[in-house]
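name: query_chain
kind: protein
chains: 1
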Amino acid sequence: MPAHVSINPLAWESAFFGCATARLDLDGELPLEDALRHPTDLWQIKVPADRLEAIDALCQHGFQLAEGEADLAITIKRTERQPGIRIARESQIADLRAAAAQIFVQSRFRAPWFAADASARFYAQWIENAVRGTFDHQCLIASDASGALQGFISLRETEGDVRVGLLGVLPHAQGNGIGQRLLLAGADWGRVRQLAHLRVATQLSNLTAMRLYLRSGARLESTAYWFYRKGHDPI
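structure:
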């Protein structure tokens, strides 16, 4: 059965990357081949891992695998305030941008679809937006006794749950439980707001993150794949 999709232009990403980008969503009204005739520089689509017929159709139309993604959830029950975790301030944006650019070097925003520095720039902007309360609602940070940044987590409230945007620990602070403290702080942030679950997505290749979430009581809810296709490629 031919795949049908809907087209959703991504205005913010298009402006940020300087590349007209659109996302396709499955089960729309347009046949895939017709949708691909629309002018754009880059197509993106996220497909549940069990939609094999859709994956086959995408591959037949020149889409390439960008990355796999797992979505996990933790039920928020009793939580505690975590020591050394506080709300990030605008004066800390420069340090947070540098940290995010350093940590998130592997992502789906990579060559051959994006410039070499695209991932670093994207996540640096994401964490700045979180501090300012745009897109994500808040950014929490972990610091050592001298006040030096160790890690961060960005959070947003959505549909009765809290969604983790970014969770990162600087290389020099890894192996000291900082990631788990930040995750627990995120759950506490959700409890205060009477939210039911803490949700987080991560790359299937990021085994360190997967182990952290599962060790913290998360359950795996779904897996999916991101596929990309350049708009000027022949149909």
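note: The first strand starts at residue 4 and ends at 9.
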